[in-house]
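Hi C.,

You asked whether I'd gotten around to modeling the 134-residue construct. I have! Everything is below, sequence then structure, no commentary in between.
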Amino acid sequence: MALENTYVMVKPDGVARGLVGEVVGRLERKGLTLVNMRMLTIDAELAGRHYGEHTDKPFFPELVSFITSGPVVAMEWSGESAIAVARNLMGVTNPVDAAPGTIRGDLALVITENIVHGSDSSESAERELSIFFG
């Protein structure tokens, strides 16, 4: 097990529903440490950088439209196996399939508005943290 940092974002639906504290609380209670946090509204250019691997996919315009629709909370978390721990707390991408007790399993209904995003590897964590925190 190694100490690592990961990127987690509360998406516009989570911010609009007042779930930032719930997401932060779950990550803190699990034992991760909040290193950095900022609230911002993502513009199309930043959305394109964040979702760069999806630019050629048919759902890309919908992704950009949603992520730019309101403020998000960008966060850097640290801890033992932080990437896997955060991903497990979030639950699988489709909330219908997400286990009870996970953020998506407890709080989301549709795949397009699933409350949170989290890095899925050390490479994506490094890339996403550099995009949002320099």
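If it helps when you're writing up: The first helix runs from residue 12 to 16.

Thanks,
B.
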